[in-house]
Every structure is written in C-alpha cells, then in structure tokens.
Specification:
heterotrimer, A alpha/beta, B mainly alpha, C mainly alpha, A: alpha/beta, 2 domains, six-stranded mixed beta sheet, 38% helix, B: mainly alpha, two-stranded antiparallel ribbon, 11 helices, 73% helix, 4% strand
Chain lengths: 263, 304, 320
Amino acid sequence: MSMSNPLLALRGVNLSFAGNTVLDNVDFSVGRGVIASLIGPNGAGKTSLFNCITGFYKPQSGSIKVDDQELLGLKPHRVTQAGIARTFQNVRLFQQMTVLENVMSGSHCRSKAGAIAAILGLPSQRREEADIRAHAIECLAFVGIADEMDRDATNLAYGHQRRVEIARALATRPKLLLLDEPAAGLNAGEKADLLTLIGRIRDELGISVLLIEHDTGMVMKISERITVLDHGVVIAEGAPKEVQANPKVIEAYLGQEDGEDLL
Amino acid sequence: MTIFDIFAQQLVNGLVLGSFYALVALGYTMIFGVVKLLNFAHGDIYMVGGFIGFLVLSVVAPIVGPGWSGVAVSMVVAMIAVGFLGVVIQRIAYQPMLNAPRLSILITALAVSLVLQNGVLTLTHGQYQPMGADLGFGGVNLGLLFISNNQMILVGTAAALMIGLELFVSRTQYGRAMRAISIDKDMCRLMGINVTAVIAVTFFIGSALAAAAGTMAGAYYGSVWYFMGFLIGIKAFTAAVIGGIGSIPGAMLGGLILGLLESFGTQIPGIGSEWKDVFSFSVLILVLVLKPTGLLGKSEQERM
Amino acid sequence: MAQTRSNLFNNLIAQFDTPWKRCAAFAVILALLLVAPISLGPYATVILTNALLYVVLALGLNVVVGYAGLLDLGYAAFFAVGAYTVGILTHTFGFNFWLTLPVAVGAAVVAGVVIGTPTLRLRSDYLAIVTLGFGEIVRFTARNLDITGGASGISGIQQPWLFGWHINTPFEFYYVFVVLAVIAVIVSVRLQHSRLGRAWLYVRHDEDAAEAMGIDTVRVKLAAYVIGAIFGSIGGAFFAVNLGAISPESFSFQQSVLILMAVILGGMGKIPGVILGAFIVVLAPELLRDMGEFRLLLFAVGLLLVMLFRPSGIWPARGK
C-alpha cells in the first residue's frame, strides 16, 4: 500500500482543536506525476489536512515531508517555497487587482529583487520584472484566459475566477498542487474543461495534483488514487475501483444525509 | 509612613483610578461586542461628558449648591445627553461604514474623535475649565491612612453604576440580545432580534457610563480640558484588553487592575509619576502582544 | 452641483493617462516650484518648504498606510528619531551633519523594526493603538531624558555646509527640500511598481492568501515600517537643521494625525493624491489663519466627510 519514494508523505499526523480530534494518526502519501483525490463526508477533516500540509494548522504530532524535506512547523510561505501550492474552497483572489497582478503574486517566492534594487532601477531588477510578467502570462495562457489579464479579477465569471486561482498557484512553480473543491459551482461543461486542465497539469507540467472534491463522478474519472477520510481517520486508500467497492466507504457515505451514491 | 501605609494609600488611589478606567473601559468593551469596532472616539465621549457636566454644574450650582448634589444632577444630565450623542455618532458615522474595509472605519472613528476634540477646543480656546465643584475635604482616618469622602462617593457611584449595568445585561431582554449579538450578529437578525435598536442602546449605555466618569473626574480633579479624553481613552482601552475585550466583567476587572498597577507603579523607584504613562503604554503593548485575549476573553480560532 | 464639479475634476485628471503626459505635467509643476521663491517672496517660501517637508513625510506614511494597509497612528516617532539623532550628534557631539545622516537612517531602521515587530500579528484596531502608544512613548522619552534636552528640546543646531556652501537661508533650504521631495516621489513610484510594492498590496488585501502564495508577510510588513521610518527620519533630519531647534511638542500625536490626514485627504496609495494632501494640510491653515482653532475643527470635519462620501480621497481612483 505505501509507495516507495513518494512526493508527499504524511506519517502519524494528529490534529485536535480544544479537545476535539480532527485528524487521527493519518498516514497518507502522494506519488510523483499522479492525480490523487481526497474524499470523505462533510466534516471528515479534508480541508484541515490541506491546512496541515500548507502550514496553516500545526498538528500536535506526526511528520509531513515533501521530497524528504520536513514541512511540519514551517510557516505557510516556506511550504509554498518548498513546492506546494493551493487553491481555496471559496475563491480568494486579491480584490481590486487585475488578473495578471493576481497571478504575478505566485512569482514572488521565485524572485528576489528587493527594495533597494527596485529604487535604483537596476538592470537585474528590470529583467526580473519582465520575467515575472512573462511567466504570469504563460500561466494564464496555460489555463486559457490570457485575454482577460488586464481585467479586475473580481469582474470575471466565476468559472474564470477559478482558473485564475489555478494559474496563480501554477506561477509558484509547484511540485504538488492542492485543489480544494475546484469543481464547486461549475456547470457540466466547465467541469469537463477542468478535468482536461488537471490532466494537462500532470502531463505537460509534470506536477502532481491532489484534489478535495465532492463530485464523485469527477473523482472517479480522473483520479489514479483515492484516499477516503472519515471523522479524521483514513478508512480506505487505493485505485478508484477498489475504493468504490470498499464496504467501509459505502457505510461512511450512507451514514450521511446527503451522502452521494458512489455506486 | 510604613510600607503598609504606603501600600494601603496606593490601594485606595488605585481603586479610585480603577473606577474611572472601568467605567470607560465598559463602553469600549460593550461597543466592541456588538459592532466589533474599537470606538476610537470613546475617550473623547468621556471628555464631552465632563464638559457637559461642567456646563450643567455652572447652571445648577446656584440652585442646588456646588456640592455632590449639584454634581449628581450634572452627571445625570451629562449621561443622558452624551448617551444620545453616542447613538447619533453611531448612526451618522459608523452605520454607513459597516461594509467598508476595516481601515476606513478605523479612520472614520479617528475623524469623529478629532471632531469632538477640536469642537471643544474651539469652544474653550484650549483652556482648562475649572469645574467649580465644592466637595469638601472630609474623610475617614485609619491610622496614617486617609480616605476622603469624595473618594468613597466616587468608588461607590462607580460600583453602583457597574452593578446596575450587570443587572441590566443579565436580567433584561436588551441585555440578553446584546450578548447574543456579540456572539453571532447575523444569526440574531435571522431570529428577529432588532439588531439596530440593540446597537443603539449599547452605544447609549456605553457613552453614558463614560460621561458619568467624565463628570466625576471633572469634579474630583477640579477641571475639564479638551484633551483629557486622549490619555484616558488609551488607558481605558488597555483596561478593556487586559480584562478581555468583549467581556463586561473583564472590563471592570481590567479597570481595577490597571488602576492598581498604575498606583503601585508610581512607587517603583525610577518610574515616578512622569513615566507612569509610558508604564501604562508598555503594559498595553505587552498585553496585546503576549495575551491579546486578556484574562477573561475567549481566544479566536481562525478557520480557513 | 457637487456631482458635476467632481466629474469635471475627474475628467481633468483623466486627461493625463499616459506616462509621458504624466511626466510632462510633473515637469511643469517642478518648474513652477523652482521659480516660486523668486516670484512669491520669503514668507511663501517658508510655507512651501514646510509643504515639501510634509510631502516627504506623507509619502513615507503612505508606504505604511497606503501601500501596506497598516494604520500607523504614531508615525511622528520616526520623524522624531531623525530629528533628535541629528540634533544630538551635531549639537552635543559636534559631528558633521552629513555624517549623521547614515546614523539617522540606521536609527530609523531600528525604530521601524522595534515598533513594527509587536504589531505583526495584531488586527488593525489594535495595531493602530499600539503604534499610537509607541509614538507617545517616544515623545515622553524625548521630554524626560537629559540627552534630548528634556521639555525644552535642543536648540542652536548648526546649519550644514556642503562643499563650501553654507546652507542657511530659507531660500537655500527650500531648494534642498525640493530635491528631497523629488527623491521621495521617485522612490515611491519605483517601489509602487516593484515586486515589493505588489507584495504590500497582496498582504494588505488578503494576508492568508498572500502567505499561501509564498510571500513572507512578516518581512513585507517590516519592510513597510522600515522604509516609512527612513522617509520620516530623513524628513526629521533636515527639519532639525532647517529650524535650528527641536522640541518634543513637534512630535506629538497631533503631528502624526496631521501627516495621516495628508495621506487620507489626498487619497492614500496614490502618489499625486498624497502630494496634494500634503499641500492642503500645510496651505489651508495659512489661508484660514484668522479662524484660529476653528480651522482644526474644519479639518476634522473635512476628514469625516471625506471618509463618509469619498473615502478614496480627493484624487480620483485609477480607472479600469
């Protein structure tokens, strides 16, 4: 079950808030160049797991490694620098800024010109600015909305805003991309486009993708590996067909009122 | 004087100071509870209260005398007038800003504070206005310790007001609504609570308490001044934070603690009374950095 | 009526949409500034010098408040640091003014870090009060230490020499401040369009999202404080030698508020707006001289009205 040399490896992660256990001894891995999904009923702890990986929550114990680099205890911006980028459940683009400026934020951690270089207008700084801009346009082109780059980010259609978020995350040059419910609020056509995009991220950019997603149809179609979380515990893990047939998983979902039918 | 006498004297001083801080801190904490805003103008509300008290006293003194009865009348009038002023300020300045970025509403509160300050500055040409209260020098002697009647009346009045507030908050509908709103405002709206009215009442009470403190301070210390709200404002805010912002018992406790800290602080060699303000500011910074939830406040958990 | 007037103003400003047109406008204003003392006389020169000082200070505070969104109510502390550093080192220890400038900058960096660090995790209300507290602590300290001259401050500060030229007339100081203001504007523009300038906006609009994008929000915020402090300190340094004497009362909360007003009234975050605000804050009291304290009330009411009706400031927001 455990893979050798995974890209991301969580071992024995425990997280609790005010006495409530949110994650219970979680072991979890994501391989290289794969698309994996994290599913589970509402309140299972999926977003909390993302937050632990990205450094916004600090687990009480355990280890989180990417390429053998320990992430536990690192501040969020260091985790991003280590190669993990994310999008948010509720789109969190920077308000009152253009699409291009939003995506350029991703390049901050991959550039280094400081205040003095900027004030003096050094050639190296000018070159770096041009590179940042070019890279941002590249990312926007990759997700297919380069023509909207000068518009105010919040004026875009919802589906396009989600794509800007992905472009922004790609601009950080990640090894692993965490997508938190990327299909929420999208129509069928947009979901199909999203699936294609995720596939291209893996194939053309070599980036692993980990999704949290409630749309089980999508999850089945695109994931190479699915992990099921329930009440903070990993109850199943494996290829889609295996997970689908796993009785524990079926039980967990049937127990929910709006549990989606996996079968 | 023995150490014990100094200790006892500073205890009394601390209680008196603490009463003022608590009364003003209550306004900060109550307003913060319902609108999640630090009313930067609150210290100046205290000042306006003192100023109105001064005006009323000069009018009623010929009738009821310049003693505590005169001050009492002045205080009541000031409380009512400034209570309404607080409601007006909330309606005109803060209500329109509810959905604006945080920075905007803070600057608006600063603007209100400046309007109040400069308004009184213009009227008084920046002069101290002697309150003209004649409170007498009677008191009680306990060994070398002297507690003046004024000090006892002051602390007693403050305590009475605070007890009244506590009863109001725990026994009445408005009080319960106030607490509910501080937990979840939107839910309250959905449950049919008239949030606007409760916010108005909160501002009224908070401002009235500050006005009471202002009038009493004017009477006790002898004069009112357009800038007297500045320092008190910051110290009362410190008190509210020490006790836990949003908690009413916390504001009372915090006021007391800060008053005592300041009194005893002046006895520390090297600090004296010049540095006591620096001392208070340092306490504020330390508390905000090390334990921003204060003693009785709840910690906020940020969820993504 | 007010609507058409503001539209007229907006349209006028919108004419200057390309960088070339803006530079041209700037050059014209600069030319006017250069000839002003000759045509307007010594009194106006002193006023304009003061306005230029406020341009420098307001641009500095603009970095902290306008770009990074940190409401600093104690900015005068940085102003004081520069002024007192220069005052003490030149007057008490006899150093050459130009040698004290790097020290003033160093002191500003320290002050920026010391004042900024405790505020890093505070919500904006608390941040405002803490910075106010620091401003007061600095003023109290200046008032009560011997080395800073106590309540009477430091007087008899020598005017500086530059390559044999003694800068000691209002006329000469005016041009020094023109140079300072121009440098301040250039630095502000460069920062605004830089990686750091964008980082300030990201952190300001959504700190957690910025952190998630790999931005070290601590460094970014501290950079704002430090750069703002350097502006303030340099302003203070030249203020000290211009006036020849400094006292703690120049660095009070009222001073911090005045600088803040310049930033807000004109339009925080927008360089032309901040410059306009600085001029308003200095020139209006002169024009309203006879009103006495009433003009302060007028200012306060003006600030309130701006916040309620035109919170982005008098200068129009950038069109999209």
